[in-house]
Amino acid sequence: MQTILGAGGPIADELARALVRSHTKDIRLVSRKPVKVNESDELVVADLTDAEATSRAVAGSSVAYLTVGLPLDSELWERQFPVMMRNVIDACAEHGTKLVFFDNTYMYPGTPEPQDERTAYAPAGRKGRVRGELAQMLLSAMEAGRVEALIGRAPEFYGPGRTKSYTNSLVFDRIRAGKRPFVPVNAHTKRSLIWTPDASRALALLGNTPDAFGQTWHLPIDPDRKTYAQLVEIAGEVLGRRIGYTVLPMLAFRIGRRFNETLDEMFELLARYRGDNLFDSSKFAARFPEFEVTTYRDGIEQILTG
């Protein structure tokens, strides 16, 4: 049995498909309102802030994947994420279950220097501090021998279907709707974006590779990084028309955050858009050279024409 904790999002759904395609058909999906992805999926209703419910959800699992997400709400993150992580670690330790934690890069500095698995944490705000705390909680449990685990870390998403990210909502979703895309802060800095199905396939592969545990892994991206200007240009080539864009400067966000809670929650993340964002996934590529990464062009074609 392999269990996905936090089922229902695009990463978890594609992870369930990837596991069944390549690794096991014995899948359990856990959330407050789980829905089958594969016909053979077992559904378990559980609130991961409840320790007993978390333990029951993990029981009998050889591997558990923690993919739970929360709305961009700093107070909610501070209140719930650490409790969830503690409960999941305790449950995995109790049942001898391996743990795969799907993480992001919010704890990294928003600087143009390359980021690899050794990059020191330097969060710029509350959400980044929470993510750093979660990662450190798990690393400490791993070092203490309480749990066999790994961290799979991803940069900003882009992807098909219900993928939620600033790049999807501001750029590709608007292009699909025939609207002018918005580019956050700078159109000419290199972006590191991960195709969501690639992130899920990589998590499934790591979770079924014994020697991957005990480590942090940057999940695979197309290393031919593009700027937003280049991504919009590719979109125009795919659709056969010229597409312009509007850059939203920092001042617009600085003013807007006073009146819009979503913009206020987003503000701490904007530093990474000022300069190049160079997420380095070469460790994964060296260990799994057969893994085929979706190119930016192929991903954009799937978003806009799929």
From TrEMBL:
Domain NAD-dependent epimerase/dehydratase: 4-213
Superkingdom of this protein's organism: Bacteria
One Pfam family here: Epimerase
Alphabetical list of InterPro entries matching this protein: Epimerase_deHydtase, NAD(P)-bd_dom_sf
Name of the protein this chain belongs to: Nucleoside-diphosphate-sugar epimerase
